[in-house]
Amino acid sequence: MEKRRAIPQGYMAVGEAAKKLGVTVRTLQYYDKKGLLSPSAESEGGRRLYTDKDLIALHQIISLKSLGFSLEDIKKRLIPLETPEDVANALTEQADSIRGKIGQLTASLAATEQLKEEVLQMKAVNFKKYADIIVNLQMKNSSYYLIKRFDDDTLDHIRNQFDKESGLDFMDRFNRLSDEIVQLQKESVPPESEKCQQVVKEYWGLVMEFTGGDMGMLPKLMEIGNIDTAANAWEERQKMINGYLEPALQAYFSKLGVNPFREVE
């Protein structure tokens, strides 16, 4: 009873705070040490004292940690909780992060299920291609669908050309440009416009980076990129991009006075 009376009204001891949100006392001590969550006060006897406001901050930390953020990242993302708007903003950010995580997990589950179906339908086992798809799923590379369209020679080229870090960097840049192209298409920007041509120039630079300058790979890339009937959302999106890119590339090469596709026919 004496210990209970030693805690001022509106405060709780570290053990009670830990119990309320299902963490250990050691975890709270560690967060304090890392500067993530310090107790609001200390008792006369030096006991850590927490408030309900601290519990909301702790909820932020636990939620972000469950989403895979490092403690260093969490420290940068924590939102002050001084006003109702601050609390609402913190919860909004957590909700957005959770929705993003759910989306990633849903996509990974769907991709895994789809891979399972394809494996069962294939007449030949190709463990090399399976392994590439699995690795890209683990890396959360949303463009892993491309792998299923590559033949063994192209996959060997990719393995020799890129490691994990450079491969992800390349796909990040590829996806960023693809997003820009989708936006240009939505805004009805003419393919021959200066704005579009600048994006096309970057896109063609990525093609050359991917091939390592080997123009003999262009027919194969054209075959891979040719999507008659989209089988999934990624292919549907890529089909739209291709439809916009074709006249944009023609305008780009016409301006340069070259036709790299004709040169390798």
SSE topology sketch:
Elements lengths: L1 H5 L5 E2 H7 L4 H9 L7 E2 L5 E3 L1 H15 L4 H7 L6 H38 L5 H12 L6 H5 L2 H10 L2 H23 L7 H18 L6 H8 L7 H24 L3 H4 L2
How is this structure best described in words?
The chain has a 3-stranded antiparallel beta sheet. Helix 4 runs parallel beside helix 6 (84-121) and helix 11 crosses helix 13 (233-256). The chain is elongated and about 85 Å long. It contains 14 helices and 3 strands. The chain has helices spanning 2-6, 14-20, 25-33, 52-66, 71-77, 84-121, 127-138, 145-149, 152-161, 164-186, 194-211, 218-225, 233-256, 260-263; strands at residues 12-13, 41-42, 48-50. 70% of the residues lie in helices and 3% in strands. The mean pLDDT is 78. It has 265 residues and is mainly α.
Please sum up the structure shown.
With 265 residues, this protein is an all-alpha fold.
Shape: elongated
Instruction: State the distance separating the first and last CA atoms.
Output: 89 Å
Instruction: Tell me the β content.
Output: under 5%
Number of helices: 14
Structural class, by secondary structure, is mainly alpha
User: Which series of helices and strands comes N to C?
Assistant: HEHHEEHHHHHHHHHHH
| Percent range of helical residues | 55-70%
Note the main sheet: 3 strands, antiparallel
* Radius of gyration of CA atoms, rounded to a whole number: 27 Å
Indicate the low-confidence ranges by residue numbers.
Answer: none
Averaged pLDDT: 78
Biggest sheet: strand arrangement: 1-3-2
Number of strands: 3
